Amino acid sequence: MKLSEAFLWPGTKVCERLGVDPEGEAALIRWFVNTLVYLVVSLIVVVIVVT
After folding, report:
1. For the chain, how many structural domains are there in total?
2. How big is the chain by its Cα radius of gyration, in Å?
3. Contact, 11 vs 22, CB < 8 A?
4. Residue 29, class by beta-carbon neighbours within 10 Å (0-12 exposed, 13-18 middle, 19+ buried)?
5. Which stretches are transmembrane (predicted)?
6. Contact at 8 Å (CB) between 32 and 22?
7. Helix (H) or strand (E) holding 44
8. pLDDT at residue 23 above 90?
9. Domain that holds residue 26
10. Statement: the pTM of the whole predicted model exceeds 0.85
């Protein structure tokens, strides 16, 4: 598994669960899910560092 595949893993799993191809037109779904996942993770890290 490459590093890029590891970063895209959450969105890829959601696309597979929905039954769509994560490499095709559903790449926007994968991008959206990854953005939400990493936004939440980043916000948690920021809150922990700031407090």
Report:
1. 1
2. 13
3. yes
4. middle
5. 28-50
6. no
7. helix 27-50
8. no
9. 3-14+21-50
10. no
